[in-house]
Specification:
- The chain is built from 15 helices and 14 strands.
- The chain has 2 domains: 15-137 and 292-315 and 337-379, NAD(P)-binding Rossmann-like Domain (Rossmann fold, 3-Layer(aba) Sandwich); 141-279, Dihydrodipicolinate Reductase, domain 2 (2-Layer Sandwich), CATH 3.30.360.
- By secondary structure, the chain is an alpha/beta fold.
- The strands form 2 sheets. It has an 8-stranded mixed β-sheet.
- The chain binds nicotinamide-adenine-dinucleotide (NAD).
- The site of nicotinamide-adenine-dinucleotide has 22 residues, from helix 1 and helix 4.
Length: 381
Amino acid sequence: MSNTFATIPDDGTPLRVVVVGAGGMGRAWLHTVEESPLVELAGIVDLDLGAASAGAAAVGRPVPVGTGTARLAADVGAQAVINVTVPAAHHPVTTEALAAGLPVLGEKPVASTLAQGMSLAAAAELSGQLFMVSQSRRYNRQLFAAKRLASTIGNVGIVSADFFKAPRFGGFRDAMEHPLLLDMAIHQFDMARFLLDADPVSVFCEEYNPSWSWYRGDAGATAIFEMSGGERFVFTGSWCSPGLETSWNGAWRISGEHGSVIWDGDNEPEVETAVELLESDAGLESEDPGQEIAGALADFVSSLRTGAAPMGQVHQNIMSLAMVESAVLSASSGKRIMVDALLEESYAQCLTSERNPDVLQILRSWPTVRAALALEPSRMP
Ligand SMILES: NC(=O)c1ccc[n+]([C@@H]2O[C@H](COP(=O)([O-])OP(=O)(O)OC[C@H]3O[C@@H](n4cnc5c(N)ncnc54)[C@H](O)[C@@H]3O)[C@@H](O)[C@H]2O)c1
């Protein structure tokens, strides 16, 4: 069992990448890749060749295009793949790239299901290549500052995130069964894991659809998670709440033994304590992780250069999807869901559906799912 990965030492030239998926978010990635001195856009892949060509036209210079990831990557000598396809294609595209010996930076969610996410973690182990999920809202200097301030307020017991917006997307989100939980809440769930350095233990969630909602599925939800440090994380969100909307990051409160931190998601976080903060605690500058997908891209390249694990390495990211799936299951069953039970069920499903015998062998070698997913490079043999 290993999640160490092959590095690509810095020879002074940018990393040659192929972007797969030239839809709405693919365009954002193409722009970010073009802007970055760390990488060079070597090709664009899309099942729809017209979309790939339109992506190249938007870049404004000739870029090779194709419909097959491993094929185009080999043709253009790419060193890595950025997977910005729809969630259903995350598993096949990433599997193909890893098997071709290419590291992958993939859009969230890791895959359509937890079972597929586990298959990808094992495929990454098998290939010895890095597979990182870009959970872009982690890359935010203010979020890092909020986490640092939270370290000054004693034991943290409660974290809440409110998310109220009213976008008129049209298209697939309006017809989805769980539009808020499946398409948006993974960001706040993942941010809560980051803020607390904790994983989910259980969840109780209710979903509802306000009477005026323009979504077919439930556009509102409240979820109460118990986290591994005993903390509670409470998420309340709505995608049909015009007026006084929150930021896209949500509005946060972190409540601790000696004080509280609040962050509106767009401005500097604030702290107020019942005790005097040490000068050193209050004045410390926090790290700047870069901004959103540009930050994730820089983290990916830095990890490939140095071998240090990035924030979204597949094993560590899967628990964010576990929060989404357990919340959906709780809402549909009306029961509190124990995350371990869901992990075991998904693992069993993964063993049944895995078609690659070498990946299957790795999956079978996992002592427990939680132990396999918690694997840190520092604890590697
Ligand atoms: N981080 C964020 O804030 C954020 C925002 C929006 C979307 N996303 C994520 O980005 C991903 C893409 O979303 P989108 O809105 O761009 O979707 P989209 O439907 O606009 O585009 C997806 C593209 O992938 C292509 N595609 C599908 N299957 C493929 C395959 N097997 N091989 C090659 N190409 C394939 C489609 O033809 C399409 O052009 C999703 O995972 C989504 O969750 C993230």
